[in-house]
Specification:
CATH architecture of the largest domain: 3-Layer(aba) Sandwich
Radius of gyration: 19 Å
Low-confidence stretches: none
Structural class: alpha/beta
Number of helices: 9
Strand order of the largest sheet: 3-2-1-4-5-6
Largest sheet: 6 strands, parallel
Helix content: 25-40%
Order of helices and strands: EHEHEHEHEHEHEEHHEEEH
CATH topology of the largest domain: Rossmann fold
Number of strands: 11
Mean pLDDT: 86
CATH class of the largest domain: Alpha Beta
Distance between the termini: 11 Å
CATH superfamily of the largest domain: NAD(P)-binding Rossmann-like Domain
Strand content: 25-35%
Oligomer: single chain
């Protein structure tokens, strides 16, 4: 399966966190920032580090950003730059644009420009956003410790209409299902004979690396 390609624009604390987490998870990451010192500090923590002005459309074109699956606009407090870069990325045809917003009003503007997801660093840690970005099944992710996490995952297609006992998730994938969201209902400590539906959401706990693998299935 082809790995997703990510480009992170703006390497403040949030941008660095997202870029480094994605890279550590094995993904190709291009990081772009105006500050050469910042890029130098990240050179071993991303696949490609580029010192460039992302406000220049020709720069983004020359870097081939339209070929990336996801672009993360992690600009700091420069709202104008954030808006203009988001607009340029959408016009260049980037498949998915995720933009950082500093407040709700900024977020609404980015939404109107077509940003596919808005994140608020005060609420969304960079690591959490990175895990969300790499999986279509992962709905939410909370880091419990250095090794363990809790996540909400939609049921992978190959598990639909199988009971929890049949899936053997704990043994095969190291994933423990502690609850199932089914519509408005929450099934806590579901029994082994509980059959999974296609629209169920599994609330799982386990090693972060095991949950990542499971969410990508």
């Amino acid at each position: 399966m082809k790995k997703k390609l990510f480009v992170v624009i703006g390497l403040g604390r949030f941008g660095r966190s997202v870029a480094q987490t994605l890279f550590n998870m094995g993904y190709d990451v291009m990081a772009i920032d105006l500050d050469e010192e910042v890029i130098d500090a990240m050179k071993d923590k991303v696949t490609y580090g580029v010192t460039a002005d992302a406000l220049e459309e020709r720069v983004l074109e020359s870097l081939g950003v339209r070929n990336f699956d996801v672009a993360i606009v992690a600009i700091g407090n420069d709202i104008q730059a954030s808006i203009l870069i988001t607009l340029t990325l959408k016009e260049l045809g980037v498949k998915r644009v995720v933009a950082k917003a500093i407040n709700e009003r900024h977020g609404r503007v980015l939404e109107k420009l077509g940003a596919d997801k808005i994140v608020y660093p005060e609420r969304d840690m960079g690591e959490r956003v990175a895990h969300y970005l790499v999986s279509a099944n992962l709905l939410d992710y909370i880091e419990i410790s250095d090794k363990y996490s809790l996540s909400e995952v939609t049921v992978p297609q190959f598990l639909v209409q199988k009971s929890l006992k049949q899936t053997n998730l704990r043994v095969k994938y190291g994933v423990n299902v502690i609850a199932i969201k089914r519509g408005q209902n929450l099934i806590v400590a579901p029994p082994g004979d509980e059959v999974l539906n296609s629209d169920d959401v599994l609330i799982c706990i386990g090693l972060t690396q095991d949950l990542d693998k499971f969410a990508l299935m």
